[in-house]
């Protein structure tokens, strides 16, 4: 182990700056093999630790919990390593390929489903030679892309239980969300085929409807924006189950001094789930929200609870929807029901909540307007948009010289 760590230290000390394309790829290939071999050794060691009950030494019951706490793995990754270790003991051909660095941890986990107790029992009942299945699937994994391996395993398991009852699709569904220090979240999910189809259909509808001129977002960004928009739409519709007698809503807590201060105010506001955001972000959320005044005493306990005031009443929103017909940001065609009502002159700065001071903006462009972009309605009813540098955003054929706002 000391030799291994010393070798890694030597690799980390190498200067990669002089290397270019082919040389870097030549260096990367053996590193990937080494990564696969290390993953196989981790899984094999975890399996032996599981059999011997080693987690009890640190006061834990399972190796999955040990990997989460001591290895800092996510719950899903810890479970995958444990399952892979169990599969290595049942599938010798796959184990040999893993030891040689020919399979990734993900591939091993997929093939490992073959060795789950219920599948081994079904194979025994039908006199299936698991050793042959092990060899065939390992060959597919070594020579074909990951997706082909997953397809082959799925095909085998379907044929193994061809006459069995239709499984409950909800049993395999999982969604794991991890919150980071800045309040952002990341995660992973597993859905059955029908559940996945529903999600993809809903996201694709939002993505296609929300595309605008000169959209430079990546596909991943479009899907992420679509997911947030689905949540916005569901929350705004008011049809979600109530929570302790109240409709679910995004809650932000901020002091009045930070709310009225035009500065960014890093970390000045707190969301209902505990994330910390800036005062600027809180003001953006409040642009089309409701504000409740709560006076706290020196001990932090509420002394007075004012009535919640909806900043944009329904009649103003309806009028803006009729007038604007969708997001007014140049080049965007997002429909009205996905839009917020933006105050052209911020309400916190004395801007009236009126039709004349309102503009419909989708979430993405509402964010841009709160980060330096500007929209303005002309006397003829047309909306124009300017970048933070003062140049106007225009679509279609136009002069190469950018238009700037009048001084």
From TrEMBL:
SMART domains: HNHc. This is HNH nuclease. Residues 384-407 are annotated as: Disordered. Residues 315-367 form the HNH nuclease domain. It comes from the Bacteria. InterPro entries: DUF222 (IPR003870), HNH_nuc (IPR003615). It comes from Geodermatophilus obscurus (strain ATCC 25078 / DSM 43160 / JCM 3152 / CCUG 61914 / KCC A-0152 / KCTC 9177 / NBRC 13315 / NRRL B-3577 / G-20). It holds the Pfam family DUF222.
């Amino acid at each position: 182990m000391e030799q291994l760590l010393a070798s890694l230290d030597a690799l980390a000390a190498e200067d990669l700056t002089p290397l270019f394309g082919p040389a870097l790829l030549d260096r990367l290939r053996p590193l990937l093999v080494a990564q696969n071999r290390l993953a196989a050794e981790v899984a094999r060691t975890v399996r032996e630790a599981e059999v011997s009950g080693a987690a009890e030494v640190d006061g834990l019951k399972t190796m999955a919990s040990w990997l989460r706490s001591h290895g800092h793995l996510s719950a899903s990754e810890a479970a995958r390593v444990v399952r892979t270790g169990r599969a290595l003991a049942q599938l010798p051909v796959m184990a040999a390929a893993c030891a040689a660095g020919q399979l990734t941890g993900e591939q091993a986990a997929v093939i490992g489903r073959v060795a789950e107790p219920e599948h081994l029992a079904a194979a025994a009942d039908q006199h299936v030679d698991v050793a042959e299945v092990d060899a065939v699937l390992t060959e597919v994994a070594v020579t074909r892309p990951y997706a082909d391996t997953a397809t082959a395993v799925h095909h085998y398991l379907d044929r193994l239980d061809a006459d069995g009852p239709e499984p409950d699709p909800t049993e395999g569904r999982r969604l794991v969300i991890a919150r980071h220090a800045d309040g952002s979240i990341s995660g992973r999910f597993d859905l059955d085929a029908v559940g996945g189809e529903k999600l993809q259909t809903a996201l694709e509808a939002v993505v296609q409807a929300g595309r605008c001129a000169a959209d430079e977002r990546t596909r991943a960004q479009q899907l992420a924006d679509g997911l947030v928009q689905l949540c916005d739409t569901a929350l705004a519709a008011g049809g979600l189950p109530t929570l302790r007698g109240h409709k679910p809503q995004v809650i932000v807590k901020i002091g009045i001094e930070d709310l009225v201060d035009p500065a960014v105010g890093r970390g000045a506001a707190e969301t209902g789930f505990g994330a910390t955001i800036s005062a600027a972000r809180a003001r953006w959320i409040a642009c089309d929200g409701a504000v409740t005044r709560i006076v706290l005493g020196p001990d932090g306990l509420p002394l007075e609870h004012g009535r919640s005031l909806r900043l944009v009443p329904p009649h103003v929103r309806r009028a803006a929807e009729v007038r604007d017909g969708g997001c007014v940001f140049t080049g965007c065609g997002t429909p009205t029901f996905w839009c917020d009502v933006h105050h052209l002159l911020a309400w916190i700065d004395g801007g009236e909540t009126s039709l004349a001071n309102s503009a419909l903006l989708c979430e993405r462009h509402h964010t841009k307007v709160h980060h330096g972009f500007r929209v303005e309605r002309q006397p003829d009813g047309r909306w124009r948009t300017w970048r933070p540098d003062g140049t106007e955003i225009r679509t279609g054929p136009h002069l190469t010289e950018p238009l700037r706002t009048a001084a």
